[in-house]
Write a structure and sequence with these properties.
With 237 residues, the protein is an alpha+beta fold. The chain has 7 helices and 10 strands.
């Protein structure tokens, strides 16, 4: 079963987004979110489609990549195929070799939170692990304060994502970030989300402290794989 790489047409964006929604499940991995596509869609449907890379096996979508700038690819993999060897090998080849038209020469970055096999394949090719990111989750069974915000979610009974959010340095320490996070969680709960999810680098102390205090649990730790390509991208022995 061959795996093919394609760039979608704008007319296919809704289908891609719908499939991506089904990949977000409670206790599942943190990866490319439908809200990311929505945010990117501010550039227009043509640009969003041009920045997407789709991998299919027998016409079934098995992996999605979104170019967020020229040197960063954010990915999501069908959860049941996170450790699939053939898919991991194909993805690693696509990302490591510029002639595939995914990433250019030079230093590039890949967010591969949900693809254990892909991360392993990239590391074997000389890529290095980047800064750790920690997903934190708040259960939405109990009520939270009523908000006044518009938040994106992926469907009833599925986790919602809180991002992007920040507070100006001159106004930190006054509870604004906490209030915004709670308001967003309340909005997600009202829309039927099962939990509110946020993912932040451990080095960003203020967001980490704020979100970790409100989270009811930590999900699996994620990392971003980064690399500077070598002239010979062949796998290490």
């Amino acid at each position: 079963m061959a795996i093919t790489l394609t760039i979608p047409a704008p007319v296919h964006l809704e289908q891609v987004n719908g499939t991506l929604r089904t990949w977000h499940r409670e206790e599942g991995p943190f990866h490319l979110h439908p809200g990311d596509l929505g945010w990117h869609h501010l550039r227009g449907a043509e640009a969003t489609a041009a920045h997407l890379r789709l991998w299919r096996r027998d016409d079934q979508l098995v992996a999605v990549g979104l170019l967020d700038g020229a040197d960063l690819l954010r990915t999501a993999v069908e959860p049941a195929l996170a450790a699939d060897e053939e898919l991991a090998r194909t993805l690693a080849e696509s990302l490591a070799e510029p002639e595939h038209g995914v990433l250019p020469e030079g230093q590039v970055y890949v967010e591969a939170h949900s693809a254990l096999g892909l991360r392993t394949g990239l590391l074997r090719r000389g890529w290095s692990e980047g800064e750790p990111w920690f997903p934190l989750c708040r259960d939405l069974t109990a009520p939270v304060e009523e908000p006044g915000l518009l938040i994106e979610q992926v469907g009833v009974g599925r986790p919602g994502l809180l991002e992007p959010m920040g507070v100006h340095a001159d106004h930190r320490g006054r509870g604004y970030g906490r209030a915004i996070s709670r308001a967003a969680a309340a909005q997600l709960r009202g829309m039927g989300s099962s939990s509110a999810l946020v993912c932040t680098p451990r080095s960003r102390r203020a967001p980490w402290r704020r979100t970790s205090r409100q989270a009811s649990r930590s999900v699996q730790r994620s990392r971003t794989c980064s690399a500077t390509r070598r002239p010979d991208p062949s796998p290490q022995a």
